[in-house]
Amino acid sequence: MRARRVAGVAGVLSATLVLAGCGSGGDGDSAAQGADGRGPITFVTQKDNSGVLPFIADEWNKAHPDEKVTIKQQSDQADQQLSDFEQHFQAKDPGYDVVTVDVVWTAEFAARGWIVPLTGRHALDTDKLLPATVKAGTYNGKLYAAPYGSDGGLLYYRTDLVDSAPTTWNELIGDCKGKTTKGTITGARPACYAGQFAKYEGLTVNAAEAINATGGTIVGPDGRSTTVDSPKSAAGLDFLVNGFKDGYIPKEALGFQETQSVNAFQSGQLMFMRNWPYAVAILNGKGSKVAGKFGVAPLPGPSGHGASTLGGHNLGISAYSRHQATALDFLKFIESDKVQRNNLTVGTLAPVLTSMYSDPKLTRKFTYLPDLLKSIETAVPRPITPFYPGVTEAIETNTYAALQGRTTTAQALKNMQAAIKSATAGG
Amino acid sequence: MTVAGHVEPGTAGKPGGDRRRTRIRRGALRPREARTAFLLIAPALLLLALVVGYPVVKAVYQSFLTDPGLNKATGMFDAGNNWFGLHNYTHWLLQRCATPEGGYTSCPSGALGSQFWSSVGVTVGFTVVACTLETVIGMAFALTMHRAFRGRAMVRVAILVPWAIPTAVTSKLWQVMFDPQGCVNKLLGTHYAWTSSLWPARSAIVIADTWKTTPFIALLILAGLQNIPAETYEAAKIDGAGAWRRFTNVTLPLVKPALAVAVVFRALDTLRMYDLPKILTGGSNGTTTSSILVVDQLTRGANSASALSTITFVLIFVIAFGLVRLLNANLFGAQAKAVR
């Protein structure tokens, strides 16, 4: 009886090992035969919060009845999307033809040979695209992913509480005086400022913005050396650390991801919020208490406007796809005026075509477009490295410890530097 | 039917007698019988070897290989899978991390390697606290459900509902309740950011886990309780035992086999807990369990993850084995005592 129970235990436990056992890689060989292939394709992308995918599917399928696209929506959490891709690529799944690549995954996907370079037979014209977005799809001097939607951080502010948007951090803090509750989201008055400060990718984005605003850097110009442990970085990170200490950032924000921060702002509980452009559509939508009562501006900094972290997504062609020629056409279709315009008007997603930011028809409706363009053009990319998961873990963990007051800013940056170094050395 | 009621006077004195006889009988199995027995279980063994043995052996083998590394000249990953000796193990157990210069140093905060021992601590901590709570509350629930009273069926259903809800749903449910503006804070009149600081986050996990799985323990204990004949209690009552004495001297020893199974099952479940903390807190604020660490590492290097899962496997196995031995010994002793 006892022996049998132990054997059963062993069986259950080995599930952990099975997981690891399936994760072995190998060498790709099916890539060549799929390069000129045509046929139906599958477009794997994140959950469509903006409602733009039906248009894309309909328009494409109308024009390409023999090469229809099937859209597979993943979760709306970046880390779940990533692990889904990792599993399918490691299994060399030909069922994923076109994949949405978060800007920070491009390097890893390219270095592992999961997506094909967009050169030679797969060349893509990039003249009309925002240079920053093209750079974000480039690894090792080669374009690997086609810009799909760009993203830059913006400051959302309550026009009923302040006359104009603050341009510096001090102005922002000053604007809050006398109007906000300190430290927590309670009562009728809003709290002052929040971004995305839960321990996840969004924290890396917010931390990088604070660090870059004061002239600090995470990696050097070569993209390899680690430079985050500096007084300039400390000055930037202190804007966030002091926010929790002095109470201009509510402590609830330690659990905020994009959705929670939008919810708080939408229900009138925040005066200022940092978020991506997609929030405009939601904040003007049904059930929003701040509809028509908020404005959008570039992020503030220590003296004058700050820095935004470049966000956004690119599209890659899977190296294991059998219909790569069709996939390339689909990429070109995504870059078209038609699709980019719909993404903006329906989903308030930031387009990647330069011309759209000065299109009078669009700027009249989306008055923040010039600010957004400025935000994207001056945006700082996060470290471009195939070891990005380890790098972002290093930034998140140590920033979070500093925000919670468990370590000093100086110590957090020191640990961050060491952990990034270790991550880029392969663990 | 039960030990206490039907033990014959002769065997009560030597509780080991029954066991010894079984062993002798087993040893005397004839060769032909042995061969038939082996043939009968061979398909099951083969299947086990295929679906359990092979992946385990492969994972252990992989744990001695390198993960793909970056070829600095091409910017592409190489294939990896070279012999790496025990490096993957020392990486986790001794927390040695690679440096850009090619050496090793102790893992800095923020590297996955630095989280190994803390994740083991967290996992074991959750197991001890959650299982204790679940056992105590589960026992109370079982005793309540066991008593005959009006509306008993309703109470049983109410107690069993949480067990029927999938863990992912439970996690989301509690995430909403533990929201800074959720009902937990409103009820308690507090302003905890439950999932964004250390101890509240850990408590939240334990509370959610206890809420979900106490019914399971209660159910198993109830099954055990229903096997105790009423005469035993009557006898104890006549002998002058109060309610507490009856609980400690009759109920507890006789329900122990069921209790032991429940505790072992729950302990194993908690030791490989993944979904609840992953969804509720994302593993932040000191709630990264060993399983979360394994999955996180899996995307960064499968061979190193193999080493980690092998270590985790051994660790859980040792704890489980110890637990089974301990409970079995206790069980046996308790039964013998109850018999006397």
SSE layout and pairings?
The complex is a heterodimer of chains A (427) and B (340).
Chain A: H1 2-21, H2 31-34, E1 41-45, H3 53-63, E2 69-73, H4 78-90, E3 98-102, H5 106-111, H6 131-136, E4 138-139, E5 142-143, E6 146-151, E7 154-158, H7 169-176, E8 191-194, H8 201-213, H9 231-246, H10 258-266, E9 270-275, H11 279-283, E10 294-297, E11 311-317, H12 324-334, H13 337-347, H14 360-365, H15 369-377, H16 388-403, H17 409-424
Parallel strand pairs in A: 1-2, 1-3, 8-9
Antiparallel strand pairs in A: 3-11, 4-5, 6-11, 7-9, 7-10
Helix pairs in contact in A: 8-9, 8-16, 16-17
Chain B: H1 3-6, H2 9-12, H3 17-27, H4 31-62, H5 87-93, E1 96-98, E2 104-106, H6 116-146, H7 152-164, H8 167-177, H9 183-188, H10 198-225, H11 230-238, H12 243-271, H13 275-280, H14 290-298, H15 302-339
Antiparallel strand pairs in B: 1-2
Helix pairs in contact in B: 4-15, 6-10, 6-12, 7-10, 10-12, 12-15, 14-15
Low-pLDDT stretches of chain B are 1-24
Our estimate of the beta-strand percent of chain A is 5-15%
Put simply, the count of helices of chain B is: 15
Terminal Cα span of chain B: 17 Å
SS class of chain A: alpha/beta
Helix content of chain B: over 70%
Distance between the termini of chain A: 44 Å
Major sheet details of chain A: 5 strands, mixed
Helix fraction of chain A, binned, reads 40-55%
Strand content of chain B: under 5%
Biggest interface, and residues per chain? A-B, 66 and 74 residues
In quaternary terms, these chains amount to heterodimer
Order of helices and strands of chain A: HHEHEHEHHEEEEHEHHHEHEEHHHHHH
Class from helix and strand fractions of chain B:
mainly alpha
Computed Rg of chain B? 26 Å
